[in-house]
Design a protein that fits this description.
The chain has 163 residues and is α/β, with parallel strands linked by helices. The chain has helices spanning 2-20, 35-43, 64-78, 90-97, 112-124, 135-140; strands at 24-28, 46-47, 50-51, 53-57, 101-105, 128-134, 153-156. It has a single domain (2-7, 23-159), classed as 3-Layer(aba) Sandwich (Rossmann fold). The chain has 6 helices and 7 strands. The radius of gyration is 16 Å and the shape is globular.
Length: 163
């Protein structure tokens, strides 16, 4: 029963963030514990030739430009004529793909510089950012001290009442 409550709260919270165009932080009890719930949420918004929500798992060796390049490739692959987007900017690709939200798991692996560049890009593109990870890992990485991120609403799956 407790797991069903967590899934329902997570999906409702993500849906509210998507509808309202808001960013947020999802605290997990352990790494990737909400992965299946997030994937199911994303799949419910899949449309032909459109990507409303996408998921990325952060890697420590990855920088902002690599993620943006990968994102561009993923989004153009779903568009009706991917070859027509080879020379378009990532901002145009995001707009044409209909991207509204990106979920970044294990965000504590990103450096402050990488996180700053990604937040700027997605803010300029009016894309909601959901950072996912363990509270302690995010605190150690100083993510929670970021001026923008510190103002975001959080969902802490560790605080959901045990039944």
């Amino acid at each position: 029963m407790n797991e069903l409550i967590k899934i329902t709260k997570t999906v409702n919270w993500l849906e509210t963030k998507l509808i309202n165009g808001e960013c947020g932080i999802l605290f997990e009890s352990h790494s990737h514990s909400s992965f299946n719930t997030i994937q199911n949420f994303i799949e419910s918004y899949e449309r032909p030739f459109q990507t409303s929500v996408t998921y990325y798992q952060a890697f420590s060796e990855e920088n902002a430009f690599e993620l943006i390049d990968t994102l561009g490739e993923e989004l153009t692959s779903k568009l009706a004529s991917p070859l027509g987007y080879r020379k378009k900017s990532i901002l145009d690709i995001i707009k044409d793909a209909g991207l509204k939200m990106i979920v970044i798991d294990d965000c504590h692996f990103y450096s402050q510089d990488t996180l700053e560049k990604l937040l700027n890009l997605f803010s300029n593109s009016q894309v909601s950012v959901i950072l996912v990870g363990e509270r302690q890992s995010m605190a150690i990485a100083q993510i929670l001290n970021h001026p923008l991120v510190s103002q975001w609403n959080c969902l802490d799956l560790n605080l959901i009442v045990q039944i």
